[in-house]
Here is the input.
Amino acid sequence: MCTRKKATYLLCLPIALLIVVFLNICNAFAADIVKISGYVKPCFSNASANLNTGFRVELTGGQSTTTNSSGYFEVSLERGTQPQLKVCKSGYITRSINLPTVTQNSKITDSLDMLAGDINGDNIINMSDIITVALSFNSAKGSPNYNEVCEINMDNCINMSDIVIIAMNFNKTSDSYIKPVIDAIPATPGSTPTISTPTPTSDSGLNLLSNGSFSLGTTSWSYWIESGALSTISAINGEYAVDITSTGPNPHSIHFYQGPVKLTKGKTYQLSFDARSTVDREIRPTVENSATYAAYLTTTASLTNQMTRHTLKFTAPADDTNARVLFSMGSIFENINQRHTVYMDNISLKELSDANLTPTPLPTPYPSSGQWKLVWNDEFDGANGSKPDSSKWTYDIGGSGWGNNELQYYTSNVKNAYIDSGNLIIKAIAESYNGMNYTSARLKTLGKFEAQYGKFEAKMKLPFGQGIWPAFWMLGNDINSTSWPACGEIDIMEFIGKEPANIYGTIHGPDYCGGEGKSAKTTVASLSQEYHTFSIEWEPEVIRWYVDGKLYHTATASSVSPNKWVYDHPFFMILNLAVGGNWPGSPDSTTNFPQTLTVDYVRVYQRQ
Here is the structure.
């Protein structure tokens, strides 16, 4: 019996060894296979989602595949090869990309925008393509003259919209394509890289806009300039450049846009873009209906000479097949007559998956009791002489008087707002700048941090003197869609130099704003010589004001009745130092400059 078992074991041993060798060989071959993925889409602004499918993606020495309904593709090849990727489809100029040596799984960062209109398949869009379409003009699908290749936008009829698309890409060739960016996807050390169809995130997914990287010049983007403004546009080194001599009278005096894009009710979208300007200024990004101009997203973005990424989110309140993305570069807060250039790049509008939606910052319903827990803060502990943390603060820029006949020009210059020894210094300087006699800074958390309810507190040492007006305050984050005062304003701390011992706390809303705001004041000693804490506790239908922890003012919904209580949605914070204005009056001979607002910290707490 034992002899038979031993013989059986000896017989199985070679088989087991062969299996092990075979598996090792398979693993070796598997380890030599890597994958490349990306998205393909037509490069025209009214391309529907069903046009993303059916592009053939071929890889020399590897696989061939076709894009799915999202335009996504994935192809395999042998590790260490340097292949060529070819994308083609009837009616489009073939795109060939010489890839670098591929050693691991990689993705093509930007969608591969494809030039539509090459009806004759000669890789140039010219008059012969228009003639071919004209021969089938006004023919519907199924009719004798219908030619499927001529129907570019797939609306079941060959019509003027197809000719317009060809005209947009007229004289384009395969040389019009620019090499895309290719990023490696890191693998865990010692493992075989794998890849699967990605779930879209804030940095992935299909861009609903065409040519957002401007690799095809200004294709797919439209431009408008009205009387009174002076500007030219171009695409320089893959950036959209708006050269402005005069901004004109209105925000929309200069704007460029793309549409239509389709929005779905209840879906959350993210608009992202890189932007800079040769002078500090603001622009206004907007997502709106093309016909009614009803805005789903409208805000301001502060630009400096440093290219900065801006990311904005919104939820579509209704289905809209005729939306557009628009960037206004006219007079946002003031007319800028100084010649300057705004550069933009990498513009995307993407639908976010549920996994990438920012959770509601506060519990619902809001707890009526519980300890305050720190949820956001800035201790201003950066390097001396550095700018405030750009992940937490952005700037309002301009010198239009700000509705109060103020005398300063707000800048993003480091001399007006900087870090010093663990403090934020906002400095008002007497100097001539863009037609104003003073400069200062106004910082805000709009788009960086917004919250509904909580305890908002700052520890500060105030400036002094006639005409000096520092403030720590808040505005509703819907200000750009509902305007002031319907958005609501909460003034946590206001101080005017002609009343050196008084601190004011106020709310402004519809029909109780300006001089009619619901306000109170308290007397505080040594405001300019010592630090004091200024805070509010904001809860449903009540706001309480404190200085150094002592309550001095309370406002409730009944305080504004019969007017509307508008403090039931997220607000953002503002720190600024104004000079002059209707309330404080102008500086006089007793006012010394520069003046500084010194902020030790800003903290936000929420009930737990």
